[in-house]
Design a protein that fits this description.
7% strand, single chain
Length: 644
């Protein structure tokens, strides 16, 4: 018989506080243009502390009376977590089929699989989806990253804890402290340069879970420890302060995250049921919200996400509140009808439940193969590639080739073979997938060095830098290139980032001359047009405004996203003149303006046609646009190697 730990209403109250913080954060509720719960995402960190505390308490208590069973532990986790998750996945699948565009829908289906098998933290990290990029994106299941971390913890931690009890015995507390110290130090160390990995991974989140575990260990060893109401007050204040003060998920977890985590630990450590904070959190409103917090966490994000995608909640506090109420309603239904009942083995045996769960999972997997083709047929051809961030599709060893800092993607096997380097920012990265295929067909080595906002600059110049573009990265680029003598370097300068910075332009040109003198071939891509409006968003708005007449509207050339040709040429005049002055036998040029300008519409550079989208936003090429510019680029590369 399972030995239960003492039920604490205040912990359910803490759960309520955590989930409310997350909901307010995702709702983006403003008061006088101030985002009041800008740090509400830290509610997840509180969940981690609570999970570490409760799971450790259960295992320690059951192990003490020799009743702990790995099988029973995992069965309880499955009964609690999986049924509601599958229901939310099925429900959100229906809405995503009708609301998401083809590329977004395919990405959503991939996230379903990652959610089912609890690796969505890896999926979102390796797909380049930073949590702080947009609070509600076209990723309705983005919030499942935290469930993946908890499930990975549940899978590994019981084995670790039972082994540690027998191996370390009285030194268990020191082991926990060591793990906490190592994990938070590592998280803080990598938070600036590897913010996505830091945010999504168990190794950098484990200290939060272990803080709860350490608290549970201390409670077991010191059952009659005197409570401190003052510390409980301070803990509650630290949590609320964190929700109101912090605003950047990319800064967490780090030493900053100690504030809400310590706050949570101080509240949990006070077990006096008569303390003011305990009474507040034990109020039935907080307790009831805490009881449904798992269902509420699952439901709220896709509901609010679909509200934003459909435009229903745009500048409408009323509809946001309405969707939050809907989230609460569905959460109460799934808690009482599904979650609570299925935890009871007398209601349904685990064997029968397993059959239902496995059947549902297989059905969802089948749909991920069947639905994309069917859903794509509902949309005009031009929308098929919309919002497809092609710079994340080229991969090596699972991870995208974009944003590599040290270990650059390298395709081809022999350093002595003819090698092409693609060097530049995200605009260059948007053409790398097509170039890779072209070079593979020609048996050429291809090495990708693309980082956000990172043009090819001299190492001794100090311009504005970011975590993806600094002098260390430039040095790594140079070291790699010098291993491949007489290779070809494809480069481009983003004129929007240049402004009136002639020093940066001069540095860029000096760098070209430097490598030309070293006998490298340089393919210089002249400035690519950029637009004042997002091409994908413009087409989406046109489609959503009148889906019936969309085809007729897109045939009208006045609806093409464009920039005036003369304005574009005036913006890039200085760059063109500077590039034109470079004369060398190893310098080759590619001109994008004839590709995108003065074709379908005179004196206009276009972001799309009636059938194809050339740019997916203001500056990045779509797959079609990449194909168009690569057609010219590969001709130049063929010309280079035909001379050898």
């Amino acid at each position: 018989m399972q030995k239960k730990i003492s039920y604490r209403k205040d912990i359910d109250g803490l759960r309520a506080l955590a989930v409310l913080g997350v909901i307010f954060y995702h709702s983006e509720i403003l008061i006088d243009k101030i985002f009041i719960f800008s740090g509400g995402f830290l509610g997840v960190d509180i969940f981690f502390v609570i999970s570490g505390y409760l799971i450790t308490s259960i295992i320690l208590k059951e192990n003490k009376i020799k009743k702990f069973s790995f099988i029973n532990f995992y069965i309880r986790r499955i009964r609690r977590l999986l049924p509601v998750l599958l229901i939310v996945l099925l429900a959100s699948l229906i809405f995503s089929y009708f609301l998401l565009l083809p590329f977004e829908f395919k990405s959503y289906l991939d996230s379903i699989i990652s959610s089912i098998f609890f690796y969505s933290n890896f999926y979102f990290h390796f797909s380049g989806q930073a949590y702080g990029q947009a609070i509600l994106t076209t990723k309705p299941l983005l919030h499942t990253w935290s469930l993946a971390i908890e499930e990975q913890f549940y899978l590994l931690y019981p084995i670790f804890l039972i082994l540690s009890i027998y191996l370390f015995k009285k030194k268990l507390q020191f082991l926990f402290i060591f793990i906490i110290f190592f994990s938070i130090s590592f998280a803080s160390y990598i938070s600036d340069n590897h913010s996505s990995f830091n945010f999504y991974m168990l190794v950098t989140r484990s200290w939060e879970l272990m803080c709860g575990a350490l608290l549970a260990l201390n409670h077991q060893e010191k059952k009659n420890k005197k409570n401190n109401n003052t510390l409980s007050f301070i803990g509650f204040f630290l949590i609320i302060f964190s929700f109101l003060y912090f605003n950047d998920p990319n800064q967490h977890p780090s030493y900053f995250t100690l504030i809400p985590v310590i706050g949570c630990c101080l509240v949990i450590s006070n077990r006096d049921i008569n303390s003011p904070i305990n009474k507040l959190l034990s109020h039935r409103i907080f307790v009831n919200i805490g009881l449904i917090s798992y269902s509420l966490y699952l439901w709220h994000h896709p509901i609010l996400s679909f509200g934003k995608i459909s435009g229903v909640t745009d500048n409408s506090l009323f509809f946001k509140i309405l969707l939050i109420i809907l989230s609460f309603f569905l959460s109460f239904v799934t808690y009482f009808m599904i979650e609570k009942k299925l935890r009871n083995k007398n209601f349904i045996s685990f064997k029968k439940l397993s059959i239902i769960l496995i059947s549902t999972i297989l059905f969802l997997i089948f749909l991920t193969f069947y639905l994309p083709i069917n859903q794509k047929l509902r949309y005009p051809k031009i929308l098929a590639d919309i919002k497809n961030q092609t710079w994340f599709t080229t991969r090596q060893f699972i991870k995208p080739c974009f944003q590599r800092k040290y270990i650059f993607c390298s395709f081809g096997r022999n350093e002595k073979e003819e090698t092409v380097f693609l060097v530049g920012d995200s605009i260059m990265a948007s053409m790398q997938d097509e170039l890779k295929h072209n070079l593979e067909n020609r048996n050429k080595n291809f090495i990708i060095m693309t980082n956000a906002g990172c043009d090819f600059l001299m190492l001794n110049q100090k311009f504005k830098q970011n975590q993806f573009c600094n002098l260390k990265i430039q040095k790594q680029r140079e070291i790699k290139i010098k291993k491949y003598k007489n290779s070809t370097i494809v480069i481009h300068l983003n004129y929007k980032n240049l402004g009136k910075n002639n020093a940066k332009l001069n540095s860029f040109i000096n760098n070209i001359n430097k490598y030309l003198e070293l006998n490298y071939k340089i393919v210089l891509i002249y400035p690519i047009p950029q637009f004042s409006s997002n091409v994908s968003d413009s087409l989406s708005e046109l489609y959503n405004r009148d889906r019936v007449k969309f085809f007729d509207n897109i045939l009208k050339k006045e609806n093409y996203v464009n920039v005036n040709y003369e304005k574009f040429m005036d913006d890039v005049k200085t760059i063109h003149n500077s590039f034109d002055k470079i004369v060398h036998k190893n310098l080759y040029r590619v001109f994008p303006q004839p590709i995108f300008c003065n074709n379908l519409i005179k004196d206009k550079c276009l972001g799309n046609s009636s059938e194809d989208i050339y740019f997916i936003d203001k500056s990045h090429l779509s797959r079609k646009g990449s194909n168009m510019i690569n057609a010219s680029l590969i001709k130049v590369i063929d010309q280079i190697y035909s001379k050898n």
